[in-house]
Amino acid sequence: MSQDFSTFASDCRHRVDSALDHHLPLGSDPTQLRAAMRYSLFNGGKRVRPILAYASALAINPLVDLALIDPVACALECLHSYSLVHDDLPAMDDDDLRRGKPTCHIAFNEASAILAGDGLQTLAFDLLTQTDLPASTQIQLVRQLASGSGAEGMVLGQAIDLAAVDHQLDLTQLENMHRHKTGALIRAAVAMGATAAGATPTQLHALDSYAAAIGLAFQVQDDILDVTADTATLGKQQGADIARNKPTYVSLLGLDTARDKATELHQQAQAALRDFGESAMHLRQLARYIVERSN
């Protein structure tokens, strides 16, 4: 990760963390709900989706006021965090570790984790109405997030994933699953940042091609890391996918071909940005980070 990108990513994380802290104070909640929500939000996430939103906004307008993007970034992280809380539940992936820490249902309890996820999901959509953007843009953002996260996006991918346990998928079926489960919200993040910055339909189309490639590359790299990184580096149990007999790019293609696939997708992402100038620098750097990250 280059120094310039490292600084940019750190600045973005600081922005979204400060905004999330403002929008979800601990307050005087007599239950554990807010504590569980905050535990899930502030447990060391990489903030990839918020960073993508900031980077895509800057690709459209290098002079954009990032304060306009803060609620969008927060909404994306709330939605993503909710999905992880629910994905870790015993009825889903039954994980005990997330980012090196006990998962929400372990740190609190299963009911609190379910409600924390529910609260984070609804907060995400509320945040999109708390911007100074025109009402028509707010509605577009809500639709983009709903499409990327709902029964035509991430949730569908999770359902396909659960149904695929102990079943052999071919490459087309595996890609369809991950284009929904992982890729859909990444595509939404890029589209939402660009939309908030005033992107044209042509620009949105090009950025969607970029986002589709990195969304799939993100999952390919996840599958590679599941067999090559240790538990301490991953922050979750190494080899968990193999233990559950879940189909992965590595199990289907082999490790070397999976790495080739990640490289190919990185090249596709870079090609999608060919009509963008220096303003898309951070998007280009993000694509490289996604296929080179170690956790």
Description of the structure:
The protein is mainly alpha-helical. The chain has 16 helices and two strands. Strands 1-2 form a two-stranded antiparallel ribbon. Helix 1 (3-23) crosses helix 4, helix 2 (33-41) crosses helix 6 and helix 8 crosses helix 9 (171-181). The model has no long low-confidence stretch (mean pLDDT 92).
Nearest-integer average pLDDT: 92
Strand order of the largest sheet: 1-2
Structural class: mainly alpha
N- to C-terminal separation?
A: 13 Å
What is the alpha-carbon Rg in Å? Answer: 18 Å
Major sheet attributes: 2 strands, antiparallel
List keywords for this structure.
16 helices, globular, two-stranded antiparallel ribbon, mainly alpha, 69% helix, 295 residues
Layout: helices, strands, pairs:
Blueprint: H1 3-23, H2 33-41, H3 48-60, H4 70-87, E1 97-98, E2 101-102, H5 104-107, H6 110-127, H7 135-149, H8 154-164, H9 171-181, H10 183-196, H11 201-228, H12 231-234, H13 240-243, H14 249-253, H15 255-272, H16 281-292
Antiparallel strand pairs: 1-2
Helix pairs in contact: 1-4, 2-6, 3-4, 3-10, 3-16, 4-6, 4-10, 7-10, 8-9, 10-11, 11-15, 11-16, 15-16
